Model the fold of this input.
Amino acid sequence: MARRRYKLGKNLPYDKMYGGLKSTSPILNPGRFVINEVAMQMSSKGGLEALLAQLRGDEDGRYFDPAYGGSSQIAKIPRAEGAIPEVKDDFAALKQRAMNEGRRPPKNVSAEMEAALLEAEAKLDVTMEEADKIERLLAEVESKEQIIDDSRVLKGGPKGVGRLIGGILVEVDGQVVTPDGNGVLAIHDSRSPYDGLPTEVYYDEIVKPWRLAMAKLNNERYELARSEKRPVGEIPQKREPLPPWPKSVPKVKMVRTKK
Done:
């Protein structure tokens, strides 16, 4: 849905900023650019949720950025919203300064201030369009969750095989990974029995013991094949069951609300 607030041709600074930002947005024009980090994020639910967090933020308008050691940042929409009153405040301050100096205050904003206000409005409108698109894509993913093939979730067991985007873990063993409110990466996937479990605990208390148990089963399989002088492929592969939820971490039911 277009968020343009002025008709084309009414305000040139707005048109120029709006058109330029919209045409160069990798979210609104994913097919125009070579594969990049944003395009990769848009290919998964976890990536879409991360992009939406960067755009809208939490209830305080902030999101956790894991880059450069991790920090809390102002989300793009709240930042863009804040730029509009800043321009208006500049004009109010200009009027007050003129009155303080005994001069007649200006009645209208200067052309430069008007252009700055229009450009700030354009930035907000394009950013809102980006959020609209991400939310639409997320809704489509969520509506299909019941029929999506879940075979990738823990396929082959908790092997600890992860997928990174921009150096940040976004998936492990087919389970979606995103940072929690404190920036700690955790499995956030309702299809997984480890939904809500921090990945550091997952690697230490799920992956490690499971792989050791599987190594033992595999050794027994090879020993049996050797003793019976049979090809190892004829010996059925036993599968270690999934480890239970670690006792070291309280299990909290994940609550997901729709925006």
The radius of gyration is 26 Å. Strands lie at 62-65, 71-74, 162-165, 168-172, 175-179, 185-187.
